[in-house]
Amino acid sequence: MAEMDLPALSKKMAKLDFAMLATQAADGTMTARPMSNNGDVEYHGDSYFFAYRNSRKVDDIAARPQVVLSYTGAAGMLGGPPLFVSVDGRAVLIDDKAQFEAHWTKDLDRYFPEGIDTPGVVMIKVEAERIRYWDGGDEGEIRA
Questions:
Q1: DSSP letter at 26?
Q2: CB-based burial of residue 131 (10 Å sphere; 0-12 exposed, 13-18 middle, 19+ buried)?
Q3: How far apart are the first and last CA of the chain?
Q4: How far is Cα 25 from Cα 45, in angstroms, rounded to an integer?
């Protein structure tokens, strides 16, 4: 089977808003938690999430920036077989309000009540290095 390129995979991922973000804790254990792209799902190899600076995930990223994102789409949701995507990448913490604004959606206001001016908010940008996907009987890898 032919391997997908990033634009084709992005089109399939368009409805996959939620990901599990896995980080490595100081004691070496792995921890994963759900994160939402908040509708910012036009995928070009980078993913954007918001968090509070004093959260464990931000501490983990500051110490060890290598992370894994796992996306899953149920059969039927995308009009075909289930889609599974795993992104190995490097997370970067961003404190730039102009960049916040570029990725902010109104849905975030329920978690960050003062919008981009919420004290302690930080953006997590995950820069993909390797993307693996499983799409029904098709699977492959994209190096970003």
A1: T
A2: buried
A3: 21
A4: 24
